[in-house]
């Protein structure tokens, strides 16, 4: 009897020990690529070619970041990226929530056909060429509005996936809230703004993060639709050009010849790529902790309809 009791007490200890080891392994596997990239970005480019850099730089240097920030174009492009991310995310999330609320109403007779049309866009696309001619006919080439109306190379302002997530979340809200508001004389828009939108904060935070990451990381739409105007260049596009030039010449073409020769002896494509990755990732890493609580709640509550 005493042996059985000891066995029962040992089982939770074994389970928790095994569980902690598995979680520790997952954390290490998740964090190591980022820490390794961070270490390479602060390590001398010439020394990096020797290999053996793991999570701590062997020869500290800031030359990799100097090569990234030496041209003023990066700073201007940074603010363009911030503007398109903030404005594009706000407009997209608001319109997505409005559409999701509309097709969630049972009294809307066209809700099923409209939903089907949006779902089809997840599987079929007209392609890049028709999108280009559409944007050209709308006179949006080399226009900042192309980042808002057609983010991600013509992908569209409203994401069908995000719309379905928000609609599913709205289904979980008590219908009595909407009915009581309408009995008091509230219009559909008033119900949406005063009741639905505040209650959808978790799921809106979720799709906001999805949309913001997509806007921030996008560079191909700049290359296709706005490459002729330098003032519309985004951070990701400038970093892409810098990476391409570093792989060809190991130097930034915007620098003077003397500075280029000096820097070429200290940086390599691998070290420049690591620095670019960190520069592009830091803003999203700063924003994520503020949305993490709503992000997790939105994924849990908006994914299952009871």
Automatic annotation (TrEMBL):
<dbReference type="GO" id="GO:0005886">
    <property type="term" value="C:plasma membrane"/>
</dbReference>
<dbReference type="InterPro" id="IPR000515">
    <property type="entry name" value="MetI-like"/>
</dbReference>
<feature type="transmembrane region" description="Helical">
    <location>
        <begin position="114"/>
        <end position="135"/>
    </location>
</feature>
<keyword id="KW-1133">Transmembrane helix</keyword>
<dbReference type="Pfam" id="PF00528">
    <property type="entry name" value="BPD_transp_1"/>
</dbReference>
<dbReference type="InterPro" id="IPR035906">
    <property type="entry name" value="MetI-like_sf"/>
</dbReference>
<keyword id="KW-0812">Transmembrane</keyword>
<protein>
    <submittedName>
        <fullName>Carbohydrate ABC transporter permease</fullName>
    </submittedName>
</protein>
<keyword id="KW-1003">Cell membrane</keyword>
<feature type="transmembrane region" description="Helical">
    <location>
        <begin position="12"/>
        <end position="35"/>
    </location>
</feature>
<feature type="transmembrane region" description="Helical">
    <location>
        <begin position="78"/>
        <end position="102"/>
    </location>
</feature>
<feature type="domain" description="ABC transmembrane type-1">
    <location>
        <begin position="78"/>
        <end position="291"/>
    </location>
</feature>
<dbReference type="GO" id="GO:0055085">
    <property type="term" value="P:transmembrane transport"/>
</dbReference>
<feature type="transmembrane region" description="Helical">
    <location>
        <begin position="147"/>
        <end position="170"/>
    </location>
</feature>
<comment type="similarity">
    <text>Belongs to the binding-protein-dependent transport system permease family.</text>
</comment>
<feature type="transmembrane region" description="Helical">
    <location>
        <begin position="270"/>
        <end position="291"/>
    </location>
</feature>
<keyword id="KW-0813">Transport</keyword>
<keyword id="KW-0472">Membrane</keyword>
<feature type="transmembrane region" description="Helical">
    <location>
        <begin position="191"/>
        <end position="213"/>
    </location>
</feature>
């Amino acid at each position: 009897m005493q042996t059985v009791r000891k066995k029962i007490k040992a089982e939770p200890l074994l389970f928790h020990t095994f569980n902690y080891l598995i979680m520790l392994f997952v954390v290490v596997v998740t964090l190591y690529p980022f820490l390794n990239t961070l270490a390479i970005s602060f390590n001398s480019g010439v020394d990096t070619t020797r290999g053996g850099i793991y999570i701590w730089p062997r020869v500290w240097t800031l030359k990799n970041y100097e090569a990234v920030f030496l041209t003023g174009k990066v700073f201007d492009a940074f603010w363009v990226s911030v503007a398109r991310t903030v404005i594009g995310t706000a407009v997209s999330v608001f319109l997505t929530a409005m559409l999701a609320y509309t097709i969630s109403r049972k009294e809307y007779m066209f809700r099923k056909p409209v939903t089907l049309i949006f779902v089809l866009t997840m599987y079929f696309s007209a392609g890049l060429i028709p999108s280009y001619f559409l944007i050209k006919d709308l006179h949006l080439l080399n226009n900042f509005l192309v980042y808002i109306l057609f983010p991600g190379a013509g992908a569209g302002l409203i994401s069908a996936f995000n719309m379905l997530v928000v609609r599913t979340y709205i289904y979980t809200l008590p219908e009595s809230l909407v009915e009581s508001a309408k009995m008091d004389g509230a219009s559909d828009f008033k119900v949406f703004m005063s009741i639905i939108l505040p209650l959808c904060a978790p799921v809106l935070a979720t799709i906001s993060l999805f949309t913001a990451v997509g806007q921030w990381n996008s560079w191909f739409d700049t290359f296709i639709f706005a490459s002729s105007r330098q003032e519309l260049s985004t951070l990701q596009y400038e970093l892409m050009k810098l990476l391409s030039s570093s792989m060809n010449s190991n130097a930034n073409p915007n620098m003077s010849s003397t500075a280029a020769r000096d820097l070429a002896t200290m940086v390599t494509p691998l070290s420049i790529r690591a620095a670019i990755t960190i520069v592009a990732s830091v803003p999203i890493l700063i924003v994520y902790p503020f949305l993490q609580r709503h992000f997790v709640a939105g994924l849990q509550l908006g994914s299952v309809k009871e």
